[in-house]
Specification:
The chain has 7 helices and no strands. With 187 residues, it is an all-alpha fold. Helix 2 runs antiparallel to helix 3, helix 2 runs antiparallel to helix 7 and helix 3 runs parallel beside helix 7. The chain starts with a helix and ends in an 11-residue tail after the last helix.
């Protein structure tokens, strides 16, 4: 064994991403794709509810009790559940003017720094959202409107969306660090 062969072996080992980590990242991607596309389709349901309400109210003079709240709640859940999908595709707000001017190495450092705040944000969604959803479930909380639907399913979307966002953020970071293969099918 020569003096130069040690680091070459280590470089070869570290330059090839782990198969298990890559599989886990792809699984997270698939879940977020499924959730993003599924909840994205809910826009069709929201549009149908709006049209139904407009026709019922204006043509027949019979407004619904359920339409307005349903539209708001389905839209809110779709917005929340699309967070991981948006993060997978790099569609979250970022100051590209600054980020894109950085060298790849500085971008990675910047992303590592901002990951701390991202984890705090997503972790807060999971933690506080779980407390809110659980309290709502235990109380049988409703909206208090004439329709009066239960509200805990909407509140449960908050921690679930936070978890999916956090997992996607970790998967993206693992790829950026070279610890998982970049999946060209989702970019």
């Amino acid at each position: 064994m020569t003096a130069g062969s040690g680091p070459q072996v280590n470089e070869a080992r570290t330059s090839r991403p782990g198969a298990g980590v890559s599989r886990a990242c792809r699984a997270i991607d698939r879940i977020n794709i499924w959730m993003g596309q599924g909840w994205g389709f809910s826009v069709v349901l929201v549009t149908a509810a709006v049209i139904y309400e407009v026709v019922a109210r204006t043509v027949f003079g019979m407004p619904t009790q359920w339409s307005s709240e349903s539209i708001v709640y389905v839209s809110a859940v779709a917005y929340l559940m699309g967070g991981g999908y948006a993060h997978l595709h790099g569609r979250h707000v970022r100051i590209d003017l600054v980020h894109e001017r950085l060298s790849p190495r500085m971008r990675l450092r910047f992303d590592l720094f901002t990951m701390v705040f991202f984890v705090l944000y997503a972790g807060t969604l999971v933690w506080v959202g779980t407390e809110m959803a659980w309290a709502s479930f235990r109380q049988g909380e409703t909206t208090g409107t004439p329709w009066d639907p239960i509200i805990w399913p909407v509140k449960m979307a908050i921690p679930l969306a936070g978890l999916l966002l956090l997992l996607q953020g970790v998967a993206n970071l693992l790829r950026d660090l070279g610890w998982a293969e970049k999946d060209t099918g989702t970019e």
